[in-house]
Specification:
By secondary structure, this protein is α/β, with parallel strands linked by helices. The protein is globular. The structure holds fructose -6-phosphate. The site of fructose -6-phosphate (F6R) has 16 residues, from helix 11 and helix 17.
């Protein structure tokens, strides 16, 4: 594989297609808005209108695209595909935005994923085709055009492409004059939504879950054609195949209501989502929790894996379960290899989206070594869930802000409840939700601290013991939401080097159950001029609820981060350069 290419043109995107009776302008606009969590560098649409493909693209968020086009311009069309893009390297330009077209503009293509051998295919096509952009996607359009000219159908051309293309991709294609959407899936998710007014096809159920619950998940190597009333699927052997219809309920968050941002709205939802998860342990998820506990007891080793915030939750899980005497390791999904797994390992994948590529790679490594996969996910029917034998659902509902908040809290809570089950103890969470409400609503202390931190360029966060991953988590949030350079350290670690960076006025937050557990480290910094901000259960006035310290401190950290970012006037829900779901390596 061409590594330089991977570094250069990795993309992860949201794609949607629709054929049907409803106002296509509205369907694609709202669908793309729902997919923006996958990326918001640029977007574009292609519509079938008067036997022509009308293509519009724009750099920036989806709203920018729709500002450029009027409803009347697109009205009357019954078939369209659309795309929202996130590029890791290279220019974010209109020319690199999807849809991409073939030379004769007979075909329009949108794509999520990566064609790893794109340079090779490009060089085969370059003599006969004018390739305008630097993307791997455009070569799909030219490749298909060449096959069509040789008399193949679009489906046959996509099947041919599948035999030659290496990588991870989901592709949607429109052909001029045909009210049909053609599709190909290989490793990236692709799902058909079957509604009474038409059919959808998209990278995920979010895009159409407000129209239908009926979802048909395609398998790797599948091609499909979708019209207003029908859909046909062909398997990797090119035979017509049946894919079952699943009914998927997905609670949606359409607007921010009176909250200025989704982030704070989602933080306010924490007490409710916590209650929902707690309830489920006693009823509809009881057998999954029991199975989890059983497996942890049975297996020689447990590997918990995840990325970003989910990895921090995994680390907390590791600490909780190790204290119970189990051989548990949390491994960052970007670091694993097959030697980490065996038939005697239980692998637990933690992921909000269930689509994070690094996590999927780790799951694949584990499966290859015969390890059983359990998962803790938020998005139902996500790829991670579909690869797992047992899943605990976080039940947090849709999370729109790029930063995870309510889902992180529920991830940690899953481990806390598992630990209780392993002890054979009854759980008592009766004061948890009210404690969380107190943290969120009685925010005078957070307000004071945020005032002190608002102009800082660097902030250190120290955590003792189980609060160490929380320090990492708060530092991550400070980076991504407030754009402050921040580092999370284990209390006691500063004196081994980082202390050299402490000078008069350096701001240090200390997270701990009790001040006494972190006091020494904070004092060492204070005596060198640092200004310290201890956040403990005493500070929060939540003595007696120490059992849930991680959940309270995490929640407080989210409110603090939000307040700083708001004072700075930053784009809190969509921080620059990021996307909610990281579907590339
Ligand atoms: C940080 C954040 C990310 C995600 C990470 C993993 O606030 O949201 O660090 O935690 O990208 O995503 P999931 O949990 O979807 O696998």
């Amino acid at each position: 594989m061409d590594v330089s290419f991977r570094d250069k043109w990795l993309e992860m995107c949201g794609i949607i297609g629709y054929n049907g009776d409803k106002d296509i302008f509205d369907i694609l606009r709202k669908g793309l808005k729902r997919l923006e969590y996958r990326g918001y560098d640029s977007s574009g649409i292609s519509l079938q209108k008067n036997s022509e493909l009308v293509i519009k693209k724009s750099v920036g968020q989806v709203n920018e695209l729709f500002k450029k086009i009027s409803e009347t311009e697109l009205g009357g069309s019954k078939s369209g595909i659309a795309h929202t893009r996130w590029a890791t390297h290279g220019k974010v330009t209109e020319i690199n935005s999807h849809p991409h077209t073939s030379c004769q503009k007979r075909l329009a293509v949108v794509h999520n994923g990566i064609i790893e051998n794109h340079e090779e295919i490009r060089s085969q096509l370059e003599n006969n085709h004018l390739i305008r952009s630097e993307t791997d996607t455009e070569i799909i359009a030219h490749y298909l055009e060449e096959k069509l000219e040789k008399g193949n159908t679009v489906i046959e051309s996509l099947q041919e492409f599948h035999t030659e293309a290496e990588g991870t991709y989901a592709v949607l294609v429109q052909k001029k004059g045909r009210e049909k959407i053609f599709a190909l899936k290989n490793k990236s998710p692709l799902v058909i939504g079957y509604a009474d007014h038409g059919n959808f096809i998209s990278s995920d159920i979010y895009a159409f879950s407000n129209h239908t619950e009926k979802s048909i998940f395609l398998k790797d190597g599948d091609t499909a054609e979708v019209t207003e009333n029908t859909y046909k699927v062909y398997n990797k052997d090119r035979k017509e195949a049946t894919r079952s219809i699943k009914n998927i309920k997905w609670s949606q968050t359409e607007n921010k209501r009176n909250f200025g941002h989704y982030m704070i709205k989602e933080v306010y939802e924490i007490p409710k989502t916590v209650e929902k998860l707690v309830k489920s342990v006693k009823n509809h998820q009881s057998s999954e929790f029991q199975k989890f506990a059983e497996k942890i007891r049975q297996k020689e080793k447990v590997v918990i894996t995840g990325c970003g915030s989910s990895f921090h939750a995994a680390k907390i899980g590791e600490k909780i379960l190790r204290r119970k005497g189990f051989n548990v390791r949390a491994l960052n999904a970007v670091e694993t290899d097959e030697t980490d797994f065996s038939e005697e390992t239980l692998t637990v994948a933690v992921s909000q989206s269930g689509e994070t590529m690094d996590v999927l790679d780790t799951v694949e490594q584990a499966i290859n070594k015969g390890s059983e996969i359990f998962s803790i996910v938020n998005v139902p029917y996500s790829t991670v869930q579909r690869k797992s034998s047992t899943t605990i659902n976080l039940l947090a509902g849709q999370e729109i802000c790029v930063a995870s908040t309510k889902t992180f809290v529920n991830q940690v809570l899953v481990f806390k409840m598992l630990s209780k089950i392993l002890d054979g103890e009854k759980t008592d969470e009766s004061n948890l939700a009210s404690g969380l409400r107190k943290v969120i609503e009685e925010d005078a202390m957070v307000e004071r601290v945020s005032e002190k931190l608002v102009d800082e360029e660097k902030i250190y966060v120290l955590g003792s013991s189980v609060e160490y991953p929380l320090a990492k988590e708060l530092a991550l949030k400070l980076k991504e939401i407030t754009y402050t350079h921040s580092e999370g350290l284990r209390a006691g670690e500063m004196k081994h080097g980082t202390l050299a960076l402490v000078e008069k006025g350096t701001k240090i937050i200390g997270l701990s159950k009790k001040l006494s557990q972190i006091e020494n480290s904070l004092e060492e910094a204070k005596s060198r001029g640092a200004e310290i901000f201890p956040i403990t259960m005493e500070e929060l006035g939540l003595e007696g609820l120490e059992e849930f310290t991680e959940l309270f401190i995490a929640t407080l950290g989210f409110v603090l981060t939000y307040k700083i970012a708001k004072k700075r006037g930053l784009p809190i829900d969509k921080p620059r350069n990021l996307a909610k779901s990281v579907t590339v390596r």
